[in-house]
Design brief:
Distance between the termini: 33 Å
Number of domains: 1
Strand content: 15-25%
CATH superfamily: Dihydropteroate synthase-like
Largest sheet: 8 strands, parallel
Oligomer: single chain
Shape: globular
Strand order of the largest sheet: 8-7-6-5-4-3-10-9
Helix content: 40-55%
CATH topology: TIM Barrel
């Protein structure tokens, strides 16, 4: 399983990636306001890299349920100074979490390597035009509705099938305009226009998505479905987050993990891969 970022072809089966979340926003559900100051954001990015993050995902607009969009200029004001200052300092790849082509293009010009678009290039019609000319990697996600209304009674006939078909169609549209087929990573969009049952069905039923043969990014860190499952407050959902990551890693259903808690995610991935490597080809007496 290869994901092409910049000039590197990364074997995700050999080393799954950890994507550290850096929200430069006042209202994100978990860490809103913590890194709104650019100096705090830069320090946190460098700290996550030291903790083992392979990518730093910088976002300037909250996409939590009920979130209100911000203007292009405000999003640029929040994220571009951070991208610019990190571009020469990070060894980790820089990802920009945006649905706006102008923000994405400006971030790429400053040194970003990945565009993480929760709309799979559907919110901004110019994003596909950017994809046709940009030499970068992509994460494209499924969402039903927009953040402001996505959790207002989302309905599916078959959530796994519908999410898979949507992402497949968007991937094909990107390749058609010239995007490198190995530069795209898929995200099923846990919590984005899905009920608790929809989220659990997606996590347990990754088979159809795996058959597409593309890398999968999974973002479940501290999300509300874990509150429903475990009865835990946001700051108490680390164990549940890690359990989902472990399940997904062991079943080969995801290779990129978008998280707030980088140290714990990196330790989980490293430990599981080490055990898998040791057990490969071994037989055990019963």
């Amino acid at each position: 399983m290869i994901w092409k970022i910049k000039d590197q072809q990364i074997d995700l089966m050999g080393r799954p990636l950890v994507m550290g979340i850096l929200n430069v926003t006042p209202d994100s559900f978990s860490d809103g306001g913590y890194h709104l100051d650019s100096s705090n954001a830069i320090d946190h990015a460098l700290r996550m890299e030291d903790q083992g993050a392979d990518l730093i995902d910088i976002g300037g607009e909250s996409t939590r349920p009920g979130a209100i969009p911000v203007s292009i200029e405000e999003e640029k004001r929040r994220v571009l100074p951070v991208v610019e200052k990190l571009a020469g300092r990070l060894k980790a790849f820089i990802s920009i979490d945006t649905t706006k082509s102008q923000v994405a293009a400006a971030a790429l010009d400053l040194g970003a390597h990945v565009i993480n678009d929760i709309s799979a290039l559907t919110f901004d019609p110019l994003m596909l035009e950017l994809a046709a000319r940009a030499n970068c990697a992509w994460v494209i996600m499924h969402i039903k509705g927009v953040p402001a209304n996505m959790q207002q009674n989302p309905m599916y006939d078959d959530v796994v099938k519908e999410v898979t078909e949507f992402l497949s169609h968007r991937y094909q549209a990107m390749v058609k305009v010239g995007v490198d087929p190995m530069a795209v990573c898929l995200d099923p969009g846990i919590g984005f226009g899905k009920t608790y049952d929809h989220n659990m069905e997606l996590l347990a039923g990754f088979g159809p998505l795996k058959k597409l043969g593309l890398p999968v990014c999974l973002g479940v860190s501290r999300k509300k479905f874990l509150q429903t499952l475990l009865g835990r407050k946001m700051e108490e959902r680390l164990a549940g987050t890690l359990a989902v990551l472990a399940y997904s890693l062991l079943h080969g259903s995801a290779q990129v993990f978008r998280v707030h808690d980088v140290v714990q995610a990196r330790d989980l991935v490293t430990t599981i891969k080490a055990l898998q490597s040791l057990s490969a080809g071994q037989t055990f007496a019963t």
